[in-house]
Every structure is written in C-alpha cells, then in structure tokens.
Amino acid sequence: MNGMRSSVRRRAAVGLGLMAISTLVLAGCAEGGGDEGGDSGSGEGETVRISGGITGIQAEDMQKTFDDWGEESGITVEYTGDKGFEGNIVTKVNGGDAPDIAIVPQPGLLRTLVGTGEVVEAPEGVVANVDENWSEDWKAYGTVDDVFYAAPMLANIKGYVWYSPAKFEEWGVEVPTTWDELLTLTKTIQEKSGGPAWCAGFESEAASGWPGTDWIEDIVLRQSGPEVYDQWVAGDVKFTDPEIKDAFDALDEILRDPANVNAGFGDVQSINSTAFAAVAAPVANGTCPLTHQASFLSANFLDVENAEGEVPVVAPDGDVYAFVLPGFEEGAATIEVGGEFVTAFSDNTATQTVLEYMSSPEYADALVTNGGVISANLNADPSLASSEFLTEAMTLLQDPNTTVRFDASDLMPSTVGSGSFWKGMISWIDGEDTETVLSDIQAGYDN
Description:
Elements: E1 11-12, E2 47-52, H1 56-73, E3 76-81, H2 85-94, E4 101-104, H3 107-114, H4 124-133, H5 136-141, E5 143-144, E6 147-148, E7 151-157, E8 160-163, H6 165-171, H7 179-193, H8 210-223, H9 226-234, H10 242-255, H11 280-285, E9 291-293, H12 297-300, E10 321-324, E11 334-344, H13 349-358, H14 361-370, E12 374-375, H15 388-398, E13 403-406, H16 408-411, H17 414-429, H18 434-442
Parallel strand pairs: 2-3, 2-4, 11-13
Antiparallel strand pairs: 4-11, 5-6, 7-11, 7-12, 8-9, 8-10
Helix pairs in contact: 8-10, 8-17, 17-18
C-alpha cells in the first residue's frame, strides 16, 4: 500500500466516547430492520437505524449531518453510539437484533460479521461511488472473499505526537526528525520541566489496550519497515519473533520508564486506568508535554481548557499541535492509518439510499465540515476541515509519496487484534515481562 492516495480517521475508529460526554443514544431507536411501507422508490418516509462505536461529540455531529440530509431525502436516520460496539455487535446480529447499517471500525470485525451470513453485499450504487472516490486499497479492506460489502467512511492517522508549541519555545527544543532525537527530546524535557515528558491512557472499557497496539504498530512500521509489517499482519512474522520484540523494547524506554510517565496522572500503572481521550486536557493545560495519539484527538481539544481556562487553539503557534512520530532514520513520511467501514444488514430501498449517501463525497465533506474528523474519500476537500491540523493531515494522506499502512491489529483476526493484543498491552504495562506477553498474544491465533 506504499503511496496509497487516500484520506483517512479511527477508531479511533475511533471511539471518542471516553471524553466527558455521554454516549449519544437517541430516544426510540431500538435496533432492527427499517420500517416497512411508504416506499416511494427512494425510501422517503422510512427510518434507517445505524449503530457504531462513535460516541460523544462526534456522534452528535454525525447525527446532525443525517438530520440535514434527511430534510431533503425524506429519510429519517437514527444513529446509536455504543462504547462496547466491537464486543456487542456480533451478539446482536446472531440474536436477530441487527441494525440496518453498522459502522465497523475493523476489517477483521467485518470479516467476523460476514461470517454470520447476515451482512448484505454492497448495492451497485455504493460500488460505483467507491470505485470513483477511493483507492483500490480502501475498497479491498471492505471486501471479504472477493465480495465487496463495506464502503470506507471516516479515517485517521494513528501516529501523531501531541505537544505544546509554547512549551517547546520556552524549553528551546524542536520537533524531532528521528527516533533517537525523540529520546533526546524526552530527556531534555525531563530536565527542563522537572517531571515526566509523556502521558498516556490505555483505558477504553471493553476495548482497553488499543492505544498501546497503535504504539507498537507505529514502531514496527518505522523500525523494521513496510515489508516486515505486512508479513506481521499476514501472520508470517510472529509476535514472538525478534522484530516485534524490538518494537516492545523500544517502547519500553518510554512507557515503562517511571521517569518518563505518567505526567498529570500518576505512575506507569496509571496508564491502564487513564481513559485514552483524557490525555487531551493535560496537554492543553501544559501539565503533559507529550502524548502519542491519533489525529482524531483534535476533536477532544474542543472540550477541554488551556492554562488560561479557554478552549485551546490547535495550531503550530497555538496551545497544542502535533508531529508525526519520527522514523528510526530521517526520510519520507511513513504513517499508520485507521478507518471505519459502512456495511448493511438490510436491503430495503431506504437503507440502500442511505448507504449511497454515506459513500458519496457530499457526505464526506459534510462530516469534515462539522469538525474534528477527516475522511478516506479521495474527492473530499481538505480545505473544509475544521482546523489547519486536519487539513494538513488529509493532505499528508493524499500525498503519493507518503508510505501508508492500515492499522495492523484491525487487520488481524479478532481473537488477536482486538483480543490477545489488546489484553497483552494491559499486562505489559502492569509489569509482565515482554517474552511472556508476546507468547500470550501469539496464543490468540489458537483461539
């Protein structure tokens, strides 16, 4: 996927749900098939129910996009955000309680859902939209056994390091261009600030541990290269192989060094009890110098305060900004991305109409305009992004010289990617030795 031309979010996909905003649950939107009757050929007058892991302000913005579109289409869309979506959706589908549409944050989970026999193949209108608006790589992620099921939607770049430009100027430090420079920066910040340079949060309810997998994936990609990364995703390079242990050893210098973490929260073990989105506040108010988190963290800064009690400005000369995690050698940009995929369990007209809208540039532009996100749609307009940072992120992803790889854990079998790998990161932060953790993660392939 070297040089893939695409714009990309997460998991984040993202679950921004651990902000201090409750999950958006709309009244009267019990999941299930869309309403029958009243079909005018476009689904006008019907209701389509969508479920996904997006919660909080992102869910509110997405619902607003559907409400605005619904005024023209005549279709009511009700979105329900579920913080435990990854763990709940398969149970709901198997129990006959599937939504009309699901926003799936992992290709591995999509494969599992297809295995239930309940997922509907993408309609022709969606296929045409995806062929026109996405790269072949992105279409492949929504394809299972040569059948296309799911269009890409939101996207994110995983490997950003967030910091305070004002603090960097105060300390006389610059953005690093190599991993060694990052370690030197870490030590310098300790000396200048008198405290840890990094903060981190791995807590994400049923998905706890995923921020740690992003760290490891970023390092594998930069330390061992795209070829090894691809072999790891395919299962040909095992977690117990030296290349993966090297990545854990590199991260050990940052996240398991008591001198380096957990700024604003506590000791090393506090990483596991700190919500992943909670790192936004200490970065904004200056109590945490550095944190590793995806591009979607920019949305979280809308709900925290800087040292002056105001909404922080995300800009190169503002309160917070971010740089791409540097490589082990200085050179071209190499990034890991994540994204979400839209798939259906109903084939009625209203659902198909919503699916076509969700795979269009117009929907992508609406989401981007509402703020805090970027899209994988190649024809989405980066200038519509809600901040200079997000415009730069989309531009980076559209640059053919950027080496891009999709989130490894999202591509692995769910027993590993969202199972033993997530759990292994928690155990590792709790102090389990690396060899045991790697062996336990690899055992997920046996389940």
